[in-house]
Design a protein that fits this description.
The chain has twelve helices and 16 strands. By secondary structure, the protein is α+β, with helices and mostly antiparallel strands. It folds into three domains: 70 residues, no CATH class; 107 residues, PH-domain like (Roll); 282 residues, no CATH class. The strands form two sheets. Strands 8, 9, 10, 11, 12, 13, 14, 15 and 16 form a nine-stranded mixed sheet that branches. The protein has a seven-stranded antiparallel sheet with strand order 4-3-2-1-7-6-5. The longest helix is centred in the N-terminal third of the chain and has 54 residues. The chain is globular and about 65 Å long. This is PH domain-containing protein. Keywords: Coiled coil.
């Protein structure tokens, strides 16, 4: 039996090796085809330019003395000469353009901190899509491995030689404090990867000011208002330059056809122009949050919170509070280290109140309607594309007020259970209590005292361990680099994606009834700086990223 198992394992290994070799050969052939096509296009352009220039050469200047004071006159530019110069400029521009497609691909070992050699092989490749930033993509050699990508941005991505034990055939890629070490087979292979990575670094796109974004948004709305048919309508939106790169897509359901125009809308400005700036009391917005969460889906760092309709608000708040606590426990000093379970749940409740489907959906619809069907336009309407919306996406991360050096990141904290559901029910009851002492505002403004946290030796409401020592020798889990002005905070980024279609006022379920497809991505970031003694968490301005596509018909994929 042992020999049979050994033979079977060897056969599986050979089959896996053959599969990887075929994949590597196909990638190398694709790179060669792209290089050959680029060289052929440039060679044809140069040869055409040289031939046209030779056939249209200007006659020599007549002999005789030349007056130095007379102005220099060039011979008349013939069409062939203009075409030759244009061809040369085109060839130079093609040579200066960054390469697209798969630039380099191979199999390298990824050095893991908690594992001993031999390390696992990963398929690693450098690729660039047209109009996008080059990325370094890596995935385990297994068929079901998840791919990870790192944007190769100059100034933020650090590429250097690394040392693994006594071996120097390795290089590291660091971006925003996260460092990955790759082990090569030889120093020559390492140098080839380093040269290719350095040549693939792209400059970070310059941010567009709010004034420019607002001006382009208003110009597109004015052009669309004057359109009377579909072709004119799409051309009016396409004529305005697109604003920056599109938003990153986290799920397959949020996929969208290629946008012909993209815009950034300031929610506050749109509300002021439409006279929609009145805000309801907190108690009413809190009750609306509870109603929305019972029929909505929320994904906290990719994990969809699933519960019954009755316990949905408490379950979602507990999951978000657990992630806030998990990030804050990475520090041992500062206000964030003093954050308790009740404080985290208070912050989570306030964040959920400000990003319900009623709030995000209303803001997105107002911005889309202002762009695609402004006041005075009565021949098109904005309708939801589908009845089932994507889950509300929430991302939690710790941001430190220091300059991150290319050092290994701290080990990830162990998985901790969320605060007790009963405790979340009690907190929500206190936030909605009619009495003045237990109102939500008083609870948020109440100063935090040392007795609010569980004392040493008493069981906490979560499994998150605390470090109550006040020794000056305490250090954060991460290696401390140079200090910069600012303090640590936990950023909670909330995103809600909604799909619409612009159709005629009398649709008949025909493709001609749809003039454009629109995707609205509502984004807002909240910052937790410490205990809720100072009130609600700091909230940034909400923006809506609008992408317009000229597809006549499209259905989003269903969730798996």
């Amino acid at each position: 039996m042992f020999l049979d198992a050994l033979v079977t394992a060897r056969a599986d290994f050979e089959a896996e090796l053959e599969r990887h070799e075929k994949s590597l050969e196909s990638a190398e052939e694709e790179v060669k085809r792209d290089e050959h096509a680029a060289r052929r296009d440039v060679a044809l352009a140069v040869s055409a330019a040289v031939g046209g220039f030779a056939s249209a050469a200007a006659p020599p200047l007549p002999p005789g003395p030349r007056d130095d004071d007379a102005p220099i006159t060039l011979p008349d530019a013939k069409p062939a000469v203009v075409l030759a110069r244009a061809a040369l400029q085109l060839a130079e521009a093609r040579l200066d353009e960054p390469r697209t497609g798969i630039i380099r691909v191979g199999y390298l070992r990824r050095v893991a901190r908690r594992k001993k050699p031999p390390y696992r092989f990963h398929r690693i490749e450098i690729r660039r899509r047209p109009g996008a930033v080059a990325v370094l993509a890596s995935a385990p050699s297994t068929a079901d491995g998840k791919e990870r990508t790192v944007q190769l941005l100059r100034g933020r991505c650090v590429i250097a030689v690394a040392q693994v034990g006594k071996r120097g055939e390795a290089f590291s890629v660091s971006k925003d404090g996260e460092r990955t070490v790759w082990l090569c087979a030889s120093t020559r292979e390492r140098d080839d990867w380093l040269r290719c990575l350095q040549a693939s670094l792209d400059d970070e796109p310059a941010p567009i000011s709010n004034d420019d974004a607002s001006a382009m948004f208003d110009a597109a709305a004015a052009r669309a208002a004057r359109a009377t048919d579909r072709e004119t309508y799409v051309d009016a939106l396409r004529s305005v330059a697109s604003l920056g790169p599109s938003v990153q897509i986290h799920t397959k359901r949020d996929a969208f056809p290629a946008a012909c125009a993209s815009f950034v809308a300031d929610v506050r400005r749109v509300k002021q122009d439409d006279d929609l700036g009145t805000e309801e009391p907190f108690e009413r917005r809190f009750e609306q949050m509870r109603k929305d969460m019972r029929r909505d889906r929320v994904a906290v760092d990719g994990e969809v919170c699933r519960s019954s309709n009755v316990d949905a608000p408490e379950t979602i708040a507990a999951a978000l509070a657990a992630r806030i606590l998990e990030e804050s426990r990475r520090l041992t000093k500062g206000p964030l280290a003093e954050l308790t379970e009740s404080g985290a749940l208070t912050h989570a409740a306030h964040i959920l109140v400000e990003c319900t489907r009623t709030v995000s959906g209303g803001d997105a619809y107002a911005c889309v309607r202002r762009l695609c069907a402004p006041p005075g336009v009565d021949h098109v309407v904005v309708c939801p594309l589908n009845a089932r919306a994507s889950p509300l996406d929430v991302r939690v991360r710790l941001t430190k007020g220091v300059v991150q050096e290319p050092v290994p990141p701290p080990p990830p904290p162990p998985t901790r259970s969320p605060p007790a559901l009963l405790f979340a029910h009690k907190l929500f009851s206190s936030l909605t209590s009619p009495s003045g002492e237990a109102s939500s505002q008083n609870f948020a403004d109440r100063p935090s005292s040392p007795s609010s946290s569980p004392p040493s030796g008493r069981a906490s409401t979560t499994d998150v361990p605390r470090d109550d020592s006040s020794s000056s020798d305490d250090e954060d889990l991460a290696v401390k680099p140079r200090r910069r002005a600012g303090r640590a905070r936990v950023d909670v980024a909330v995103r809600a994606t909604t799909l619409y279609r612009v159709c005629t006022t009398d649709p008949r379920d025909a493709r001609d009834d749809t003039w454009a497809l629109v995707r609205a991505v509502w984004d807002r970031t909240f910052s937790v700086l410490g205990p809720p003694a100072g009130g609600t968490p700091r909230a940034g301005d909400a923006v809506v990223h609008i992408g317009v596509s000229d597809f006549l018909y499209w259905e989003p994929p269903e969730d798996p």
